[in-house]
Specification:
The chain is an alpha+beta fold. Among the domains are: 83 residues, Ribosomal Protein L30, Chain: A (2-Layer Sandwich); 50 residues, no CATH class. 29% of the residues lie in helices and 14% in strands. A hairpin with a 5-residue loop joins strand 4 and strand 5.
């Protein structure tokens, strides 16, 4: 309104003010929102089918899968709130996010409402269902295949030393002081007894990574 008053004060014609009013951006109201999609059963009836199964006569799989791998392929920006709520319930917030859902009637109705935003793939188990022993050795591929890696199983009668070989204490290397640079003349290195560059890293890195560079390991003296 302030801008219109300024235009009128500068001698703008009434017709210009009317055009400016009409060109103002409209708010996205309830009438401008897209309509909710009907359910799967209602869609089938509108298309002339009795059941939703008749819409897809050539089913690609022999048996319906138990799990779906849902991938978000489009953004949720400028989408209605009910679609965003469905995506939030499935744990999808941005593109390329994945979620695993059960193949049930209620879940399929949710997927039908946001089918234009997602890609649904069946999860297949070519090697069978995993067990507790397979934890940590599985992989879910992009095409929906769930693979179980073969683990090396040790025989029951094998010796523990053969499975986990360990060096004897007499073969362990000993620490003979700290490491220094060749021909180093820095006073701080002499005062610390080691290279100052390594000493400054003692609190920044783990001892497993700094230790081999910090200590000077030598072979143990052989017994006479």
């Amino acid at each position: 309104m302030l801008g219109l008053k300024l235009l009128q004060s500068y001698g703008a014609r009434p017709s210009m003010t009317i055009i400016i009013k009409r060109c103002k951006s409209k708010r996205l109201g309830a009438r401008n929102y897209p309509e909710r999609l009907p359910s799967i059963k209602e869609t089938a009836q509108r298309l002339g089918f009795e059941d939703a199964v008749e819409m897809y006569p050539a089913y690609p799989l022999e048996e319906p899968p138990e799990l779906w791998m849902v991938t978000q392929i489009h953004k949720q920006r400028y989408r209605p709130y009910w679609e965003k709520e469905v995506m939030k319930d499935m744990g999808l917030y941005k593109r390329h996010d994945k979620s695993i859902q059960m193949n049930t009637t209620s879940v399929n109705e949710k997927l039908w409402q946001v089918k234009h935003l997602i890609k649904v793939q069946p999860i297949r188990f070519p090697q069978g269902y995993p067990t507790k022993d397979d934890i940590g050795g599985t992989l879910l591929k992009k095409n929906g295949e769930f693979i179980i890696f073969d683990r090396l199983e040790s025989p029951d009668d094998a010796d523990e030393d053969a499975i986990y070989p360990q060096a004897k204490l007499s073969e362990w290397k000993t620490v003979d002081g700290y490491r220094k640079c060749n021909n180093c003349k820095e006073r701080r290195c002499y005062r610390l007894g080691m290279c100052q560059k390594i000493w400054l890293q003692r609190g920044c890195n783990y001892i497993e990574s700094v230790g081999p560079r910090m200590y000077n390991f030598v072979d143990p003296e052989k017994e006479k």
